[in-house]
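Much of what follows relies on a compact textual record of a protein's fold. A record is reproduced here so that you can trace the correspondence yourselves:
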Amino acid sequence: MTHGQDKGGINLPFTGIATFGKSPYLADWEALDADVAILGAPFDFGTQFRAGARFGPRSIREASTLFSFGHGGAYDHEDDVTYLGPETSIVDLGDADIIHTDTDGSHANIEAAVRFILSKGALPVVLGGDHSVHIPCIRAYEGRGPIQVVQIDAHLDFVDERHGVRHGHGNALRRAAEQDHVSGISQLGIRNVSSTAKEGYEAARAMGTDILSVRQVRAIGVEGMIKRIPADVDLYFTIDIDGFDPSIAPGTGTPSHGGFLYYEVLELLAGLAARQRVVGIDLVEVAPDHDAGDVTSVLAAQLLLNLIGRVLHAGHAR
């Protein structure tokens, strides 16, 4: 029996434990000393239609192994840059504790985990879960503002209260806008039949958000959008996978046609990351039970790995 080449095993994508990007799993959180900390938030009790995003973190991690061949980083010939090289460090902390049927308790555990990551000086990258997990994530930045939230989404998610619910996935950005440390929100990709009535749009604009559809973003262009987003504050990216077109991201609870394509989002977020500091990322609403050929999970993993690489290359993390 043989075991490995050079150091400790042949680390192929289909072997070993499926951590995010085959990064080390860190069970002892107190030992956290890394550039990036991956945290799963497998919570989907906030959904109004199709559930299943609780399996999103697991499916994104599994898909991320496709891009983990053990090379010394990821060379991009267009940029002539090797991203995610050996000088960078990513660890996977596993998941926040989710208490079944308990939104408040589950959200509290997610918030505590993100606060802990921030206290250790790492960049939190949270894998959802439905979009309600953004609420505890952004609350964890209390006292760390001002922060501009950049949202990629088909839906505004700006409902104040519906049927007594204030912490579901349709409330996420309303709760974020109420935080003192959130100076503004750029809501990009919002389109067609939405989760929010007209008064929600009016409230969002009154609270300082900038709402643009996919077609409006395309008309402005990447460079124009970068200039439109404030440059003098830290950025937090919240990415709902349904912001992408369901032709490339069918595995989500509320698909909406007319969405973004991969490079449209990557080029915008990478351009922003090159200009200013990114202090947090969450990616939500991947529901693998509705996925075809795992393409949605692969899209999520590919986007995150490329985005993390560009954030670290810009040198703004840590």
